[in-house]
Amino acid sequence: MSTQAGQDAKFFQRGKIQEFRAELQAAEVKDKKFIKRKTVLKKIVANITMGNDMSPLFHDVVPCLGTPLLEIKKMVYLFLVSYGKSKPNEIHLVIPRFLEDCNDRNPLIRALAIRTMSYIPIPVVTEALTEQLRHCLKDRDPYVRKTAAICVAKVYTADPRKAEKAGFVEMLRDLLVDPNATVVSNAVAALTEIGDRTDGVFFKLNLSIANKLLAAIGESSEWGQIYILDSLLRFVPERHSDAEMLAERVLIQLNHANSAVVLTAIKILLYLMNYMDNRRLIEHICKKMGPPLVTLLSSGPEVQYVALRNILLIIQRRPTVLRNDVKVFFCKYNDPIYVKLAKLEIMYRLAREENAKEVLAELQEYASEVDVDFVRKAVRSIGRLAIKVEPAADLCIKALLDLIETKVTYVVQEAVIVIKDIFRRYPGKYEGIIPTLCEHLDALDEPEAKAAMIWIVGQHADRMDNADDLLDDLVYTFLEEPVEVQLALLSASVKLFIYKSKSEKAKELVHRVLKWATEDIDNPDLRDRGFMYWRLLAINPGIAGEVVLAEKPAITTDSDRMDRGALDQLLLHTGTLGSIYHKNPETFIRNAAGRALTDTPALNPNSRAVLVQVARTQLPPTAVNIPGPGPNEPRSRKPEPPLPAKPAPPLPGEDGDAEEGGGGDEEENGDETEAVLRPVAVQGDDPYAGLDQLGALGGAGYSADNPKPKGDEDLLAF
Amino acid sequence: MAIDGLIVLDNAGRPIVQTSFQSTSPAYPLIHIDAYSNALAKVSRPEDVDPVLYVAGIDDTKRSACCHVGCGGLRLLCPVSGDIDPLFALAFLRTFIDILQEYLGHVSASTLRDNFDVVYQLLEETLDSGGHPLTTSTNALRDIVIPPSLLNKLLSVAGANISSLSAASSNPFASPIPWRKANVRYNSNEIYFDVVEELRAVVGRNGVSLSNDVLGKVDTNCKLSGTPDMLLTFTNSKVLTDCSFHPCVRLPRWSRDKALSFVPPDGHFILMEYRYSPSSSANPSTLGVHQVPVPVMVKPSVVINESGGTIDVTVTSRLTTRAIEDFSLELYLGQGAGAPNFMVSGGGSWAFDPRSLTLRWEMANMPASSSHSLRGSWSSSVPHPRPARAFRTKFAIQQHTFSALKIDQLRVSGEQYKPYKGVRGRSLVDIEWRW
């Protein structure tokens, strides 16, 4: 290769405009087979790719379009694509050439001409293109038709009203039944692009068109298949049987080699399942979806990542999928960190009594790895496992104690944080290990771990003889501690006093802390809480005890599940950016159209109950419905008034606790303080951040974590 | 459903080629290049960069994401701003890399620069400015973009106008089948199937596999004239699970009677990929009930002390008839590792890469049932070194497949000739062995 190297690389030298101009002029005479012209143009294109401005050569390059050689034409068109937009006053010079090429004998040239024109959104060009496009959409050559279809979307972007007036949308609709599959898929792509615009026409499919599109799938390229499959989201089943019939046809696409096709097919299946009634079919589909998802995990790490993030959503909505395949998600030592973290989350979701032992053994393995982030998550997952699967709690506690013995500081701290939650989940069961924890008190330097430890000491002060000494030590640095720790210290010392109100030491301690909190601290939360405790203790210590040591809401893992309605909505975006960040795309992507299930008689009652309505921002007054050829189907009835908002707001105190570990023992207002303290993570930094926020969207008790053997996950919901 | 464009960066993070980014501001691609290099600066291993980066953009309304994949020292970025499937972008990037490989042989910054005109044409033909993939099947692409070849270069130097001869085929896409060129002619009609299976396993400390997966693919090289319609059947098709197929395969036919009916593309392609699990007939969804036996036995012993550690590994082949080839065993020795001192017995050689801190033991050939060992020690500048918890071993076995997949027959209809058919099996193994 190196012998020829540099043959083309020399074109990358910074060329001079004048030099090229002179060369082009020289090429006008005695240019046998246009070799000279081709060489100059190549140099010019090389310079364009380097980002050098070649636009002054406009008047010299454009005449080359007359050369009857495809290669040269291509390069001139490349030039026009780059600079056409910036030459609104000169572009009319090219139009006759364009028109000539639009009627060339060679379909490649016809297509090239309209494609290039569509890239130049200047009124004169659009005008000329509109005229040509009408013929090209009916061209006898499929290559031209498929190019024309895409051009329509461009014209629509440049001038929606003109495109509608010219009847292009209807012409695209006719292309949906074109004999050539590529043309069909491009027409679908164009209609989708138009339909996604907030001012675009409403793109909807009826059953017969949906069926015709599915028939074209077999001969389409993989990209065409993706467009066609994706467009099926625009078909709203009115009858169960319609959804079932379509799903069965989509099912075979799961065997495709292209990962994007597979994931899009899964999205459609998940969508159609909302409109199905036949439980056995739903179960069958769920079973069929597992293996292709696993196959995606054998691809490159980037595909694995997207697949894993989607699997995480899918198994929450359809717990039967992959429920026996937890081993597939065991991490490999060489997996990139983002893959490992995503796998860890799924392992936790799939864990249940039957496989808890295996999962725990793996988690222990990960906790001894090198990567700090991963190790922390692994330790945390052991704690969450203990909370989620009661029979495994003993083993998990033992594993955590073993980890604490390693004395690796971040492991110890992480373990303390989760043990606090385990204490809350199983009160009175594991307090025997508190002395062991206390031995490692000095290792704790992170606020969260420290606060957790302080909570443990305060909560169990009645059972610890040396609680007052321990707290006395901890309080020593009160004024330097972060707010999170200060809050924990405040609550813990109040508890200590309530438990041991006879003890002078406890009395002196709580007095000291309350004084600091109310006099030396600027943080309003801390001061308010200090005053509150102080008054409470002053008025009636007995009642203070009832308040401070009140029964805590039990920690469950329910809270880190997403609300069903939100899940249904997110799953309509399976595979898309929304599913990666676990947020609805209209909240973070510009121009993203919100999606929601449409209510029809066929909609599954359970899905309807949690239906989330999305308002299409503003429908254009001239909305054109595209029912497609064939019998018109009844348009979907107007959206029903939104269902009353979910009655139960998420229980305070539940939200972050299981996953994040609360900061202290605070009751109600503890949560608010935390929200203030812990800034909401930007989704780019932590892909899991979105989970918590979504969890807060609503609090329907959808128990995805304990699928019943029957697999009737829908029945579980209510 | 459209991506915004494509940027190719060299290994220094500078753009080599990019699409024209019609609908966005000129700063848009730059923001994405920045986002990628910032993310790269934050991680210790380049492969740890999130494959879908969130890009905040100049102001709040211009948020987008950047999908990227690496290839031969290059990094291909694909900015997306609409809510599209990142897999769509990633799959496109992969496809584009495959096309480059097909056209340039070896993909690197220098081959890209040498053939920039071809690369640029390829970009134009595979991705329109609106971000819709156009033609990505190399069979059809060869009609519109001529692959660079020595002959082409020679002819153009000699002044012959090759493009007008071969390219501008006045009837592109004449073939009714998008993946197959029309009018292909060969003097001898041949088709070869390479069945390649890869065993990926994680083996626990007790020598029992924790996860164990065999992935297979049928790599096909087709040199057949005309438009042959093929029917391929297997004698034991039930060993195949989770199959995925090249678009040419008629899926309904497969789901009906497990026969592959297809009109093949011309040249190299992957006909199908599958997973093999021995328990497939009994319970397809449960993995690991019956596992594929791991063809080697590794007995590792690693002892770590204050300032280093010692390793003693013995590898024994469990194969009784075939040899193991290209054997390698790796272990990351942890931060601060150095002064390696090892000895191999039974063959092969060891090396220590001070950059990746990895110990590597290689053997070109390991006869059946033979046993080999590596022992020695290393020291570490960091007290209590934390080496990787698992050895990684890879090797190949020729003429062997785990599934024993057997082709029953291959029938060709639609053409007169009788093609020559060749079938070959090969296995690759990739095991993580914990100590």
Automatic annotation (TrEMBL), chain A:
GO molecular function: clathrin binding
Domain Clathrin/coatomer adaptor adaptin-like N-terminal, residue spans: 23-537
Chief localisation class: membrane
Classification via SUPFAM superfamilies: ARM repeat (SSF48371)
Biased composition (Basic and acidic residues): 707-718
Any single Pfam family the record assigns to this protein: Adaptin_N
Keywords: Membrane, Protein transport, Transport
Keyword Transmembrane helix annotated: no
Biased composition annotated in UniProt, kind: Acidic residues: 654-674
Biased composition annotated in UniProt, kind: Pro residues: 641-652
Biological processes, Gene Ontology terms: intracellular protein transport; vesicle-mediated transport
Location(s) in or outside the cell: Endomembrane system
UniProt region (Disordered), positions on chain: 621-718
UniProt key word Ribosomal protein: no
GO CC entries: endomembrane system; membrane coat
Source organism, top-level taxon: Eukaryota
Role noted for this protein: Adaptins are components of the adaptor complexes which link clathrin to receptors in coated vesicles. Clathrin-associated protein complexes are believed to interact with the cytoplasmic tails of membrane proteins, leading to their selection and concentration.
Assigned protein family: Belongs to the adaptor complexes large subunit family.
Protein name: AP complex subunit beta
Highest classification ranks of the organism: Eukaryota, Fungi, Dikarya, Basidiomycota, Agaricomycotina
UniProtKB/TrEMBL annotation, chain B:
Domain of life from the UniProt record: Eukaryota
Protein localization: Endomembrane system
Keywords: Membrane, Protein transport, Transport
Protein family (similarity comment): Belongs to the adaptor complexes medium subunit family.
Keyword Membrane listed: yes
GO BP term, example: vesicle-mediated transport
UniProt source species: Heliocybe sulcata
Protein's name in the database: Clathrin adaptor mu subunit
InterPro entries, per database record: Adaptor_comp_med_subunit, AP2_Mu_C_sf, Clathrin_mu, Longin-like_dom_sf, MHD
